[in-house]
Structure formats: C-alpha cells, structure tokens
Write a structure and sequence with these properties.
six-stranded antiparallel β-barrel, single chain, about 150 residues, 7 strands, alpha+beta, globular
Amino acid sequence: MDERELLEEYVARARLLQLATVSASGAPSVCTVWYVPELRPDRLRFVSRRDRLHPGNIRCDPAVAGAILDNPPEELGLTARGVSFTGRVRQLPGEGIEAEIAAFVNRWPRAAGVLGAMPEGASRMYEIAVEQWVLFDEQNFPKAPRREIAGR
C-alpha cells in the first residue's frame, strides 16, 4: 500500500478528531469532535452547537489544524500511527445538505435528531477542506515515518 492509501484507510477507520482553532484575540483552543470523512476531495465534516467556543473561533478565522489518532500505543517505544492536517473550515447551510446529513447519520445514528432539527436547531454541520495531511506511520515507514501528503 502506498502512503496515500494508508492515509485514506486510517482516516476512514478512525472516529474522533481533535480540532485546533484560534479566537479573534489569537488564543488557541482544541476540541474533540466526531467526524465523517470524504476523500477525493478531502473533506472532514462534524456537527457542533453554534454557541460553543470553536464555532465562534471559526467565524473569526476559518484556518484550522487537527489530529486523528486511532488506537494509540500503550507506551513509549511501541509503533505509532497518526494523522494531522491543516485546512479551512466553513459552516454548511442548515438546508440543502441532505447527502451530507445522510452520510453523517449513517455513521452516527444518534445524530439524526440533532441534524433533523436544522435549520432552526442549535447545531450546525461544518466542513473542513483539507489542504495538507501529515501521515506519521512508524509501522510502514520505520526509517522516515513522517509523510507530507497534499490534500486533494
């Protein structure tokens, strides 16, 4: 498998991502969100309440970074794999995104009620357009585990 295939497999299998945003004052913040990937083009979608910290930060500055870590090793010295990324995020409209909602509910059935309440509800779906990936894979690339991969 090549590095792009490994990246796609990893991103598709993992469930949570940690998202870094920056406030209008420049203060960084990190949150953890459930996500749904779409690859080629590289998009990560998540749902959040509009009154939380990270949506406010996104309204000020759409540049984000994040990390996806699935099955971390038990201790230092064991083989590690993970993915980080940079990109730009936008809030999707509350209507006209039926395919995106269906994909999210298919992966996370308990989100159906929240997403079904849009556009009047308190939550919205957000979409990250990934510009750059970094695959860190000591298992498949032990001599040079850090692999930069352009978003598509």
